[in-house]
């Protein structure tokens, strides 16, 4: 009985991806073979692990390998492995669709990459290596059978709108991807993927460190005895695990290709970190700090990127127990000698040895970043620009290394328009008598620099850190100090930047202003009672009429909004309205109040002053329509 062939349509985003890939994206066609060999290597890793974990699994693990099969006459190239294989459902999910988050971001990046010099970087970033086969093939056939299952699956597509899928009774264990290669231009011999030398070169360049043999039949010249050519099976890769070799024996090119293998990226590593521990427990590690952040760095589905091996046996791809979340950009492998091969994530979470390994890895990564910071300014700038937002998450989650992370961190400040500063540099520049590190959080530098809260600090020449990352809203309230200096938001509490001499000289003037504005402040407090907790005179304003500030321990409006966005019910905290007693508007409001001006006019002006203060700090008005109406009426009355 003939198996039924089912024709299915690609999902819309997959069709768009294929069209971009086939017609305009990739310049480095050799990419496809690296991706297929990597996929096969993963499948062999998974089968060996599954066989360790399930002794009843019916699977042949006696000779796990990858094989390249060439038919020059038919112009086909097959990449075959006897690994874990796939079920029919997995084929549809992994090949027929793009069952990944970030598909929208991927399409945008691919469209933008059409004019890029290195668009092949997108393959690794988005996990779309299989589709790279359509760069070189008119048709792709996939035959697979999952280990332990009886029936196999054949998938086939020409890279257009549809693919076919059918059940196959006699499929071998594992997966074979057969590429029906596009017509070859005899003059362009560099892209003849039926040529033995070409396939050997690609495997050597990209996959030499794969721990499984990559084999290919090589034709031997005819001998005088039989007069006919013969073939022999040769292994194209060395299979040497880079993390087991001394650094002096590994070239930078080998490290780069291994990094690209484990990260599925195409950038070069910014730093290579080999490690070896002997004694009570032994492990080897090879870690990399990337040059470029992956697209999903801030998505919940992003992976930590550190692989766990035990005695060179692959255990899992993204071992969260080896690297904390704030170092999820670090890629690499850790090969432990004393763990059980039959481990699960639940067991790993309780494993004391793994926690000790993580502690050492973290300290090594942080110390390496410190070395980069001290001696390689350009590389540190790249690192911080790509991963600074992530690294600062450690200020919340890693109390043991909090001081170290603070020292590694850089921040924008009013001291420099373009550059950044470390906290140590900030403290060194602090004038005598300043006991706090001043900062302000906000969405953009322009918003913060234009805030009324900055006026007194600008007038006094005091440096303020400009913090615009979302994580900054959180850590500044949980980190008490740096080098004995406490952190102080310039948008919270009271600010007094005067020296003792200035304070003494102006004491009488401040007391007089307090008496002059006492009635106005009391009236404003009563009028705006539902919206503000206090109305007071300001020492931080020099140009603006008013500003709103929080109490020393209040949440900022931005932090309140972040909590609400995560589903937490946070009550809105009333703010403090501060007035600039030297501003003409506030002087005029005081005079109008003392002259018993119309209550409606005074109340409307009070609402406008508060609304202006909220807008000046980039806040949102509770009732924008009412504010616009009042403003229109006041402007009309003034003309």
Question: Mind explaining what this structure looks like?
Answer:
The chain has a nine-stranded mixed β-sheet with strand order 1-6-5-4-7-3-2-8-9. Strands 16-15-18-17-20-19 form a six-stranded mixed β-sheet. It has a five-stranded mixed β-sheet with strand order 10-11-14-12-13, sandwiched between helices. Helices cover 38% and strands 21% of the residues. With 639 residues, it is of the alpha+beta class. It is built from 22 helices and 23 strands. Helix 9 crosses helix 10 and helix 9 runs parallel beside helix 12. The N and C termini lie far apart (92 Å). The chain folds into four domains: 231 residues, 2-Layer Sandwich (Heat Shock Protein 90); 142 residues, Ribosomal Protein S5, domain 2 (2-Layer Sandwich); 81 residues, 3-Layer(aba) Sandwich (Rossmann fold), CATH 3.40.50; 131 residues, Heat shock protein 90, C-terminal domain (Four Helix Bundle (Hemerythrin (Met), subunit A)), CATH 1.20.120.790.
